Write the structure tokens for this entry.
Amino acid sequence: MKILITGSNGQLGREIRELEPAYTQYEFIYTDVEELDITDAASVNDYFAFQRPDVVINCAAYTAVDKAETDEETAFRVNASAPGNLARAASDSGAFMVHISTDYVYNGRNYSPYIETDLINPVSVYAKSKAAGEEAVHLAGGKAIIIRTSWLYSAFGNNFIKTMMKYGRERDTLNVVFDQIGTPTYAHDLAKTILDILPMAMIDERVEVYHYSNEGVASWYDFAKAIHRFANITCKVNAISTSDYPLPAERPFYSVLDKSKIKKRFSIEIPYWRDSVKHCIDRLG
Ligand SMILES: NC(=O)c1ccc[n+]([C@@H]2O[C@H](COP(=O)([O-])OP(=O)(O)OC[C@H]3O[C@@H](n4cnc5c(N)ncnc54)[C@H](OP(=O)(O)O)[C@@H]3O)[C@@H](O)[C@H]2O)c1
């Protein structure tokens, strides 16, 4: 089975690359914007005609949530139109698509975990562009899964873990918000899950939406404290409220994802978020 990875220099893409030796049943083709700009529909069609992948895992995205507020055009081109290009090319050639979306498609005003059929109501530009990307995958009419995930981090790229480790070592105190609640997700765990569930997921004839994050619930404050504990950093972390740390893009206050559907459908176990944070920090050394 030939699997095309787009955006493979990003967090999720790099974690998939790391896992390749454990998945010898698959042949991987790694691309990022230089090899395959997914916003270019003609290039996408040519690439599919030439490489004939059986599966495309779309790890490409515009993930600068605050920058998107003033760069709506690019956010929509990469997060909305481009997944449509991939989904149509996949559908036309009979390939299966795995598309990644976000907890930010919810407005975060719930106080119980979101299930896949809950009404989406994105508030930021980034969130709206990701919701439009989901819609484009649905409209293409091919076979696909859309996985909504949250608070992604990995051993690669810039992310909350690396920021907290850097600032924690440089400063005596740090302020982190305690009133946004969700679940961190280790891209290594998500990558492994995608590669494990693929053969079964491909049986479904339509587009299925699944939620995936690590298990458990945390605030960004809890996340920061766990990072410092596992990294032996003694910096004092102050719990502050969102109103004390204004950012250009509005974030959901509560975006815990209910993962019952993916766990039941594929009989998978999901690691507890703190165990995964420790695993990532051990890797970072
Ligand atoms: N990060 C999070 O906290 C988070 C949370 C929930 C969901 N997600 C979703 O999870 C998925 C993976 O996120 P991630 O954190 O791994 O993203 P990431 O690290 O930002 O990686 C995205 C990759 O896509 C590339 N890319 C951008 N435009 C492209 C284009 N036109 N064609 C091809 N490649 C392009 C990027 O290149 P450049 O770096 O050069 O732009 C980058 O290498 C995304 O769909 C994201 O929306 C992320």
Observations:
- The two ends are 35 Å apart (CA to CA).
- The chain has a mean pLDDT of 97.
- The first helix runs from residue 11 to 19.
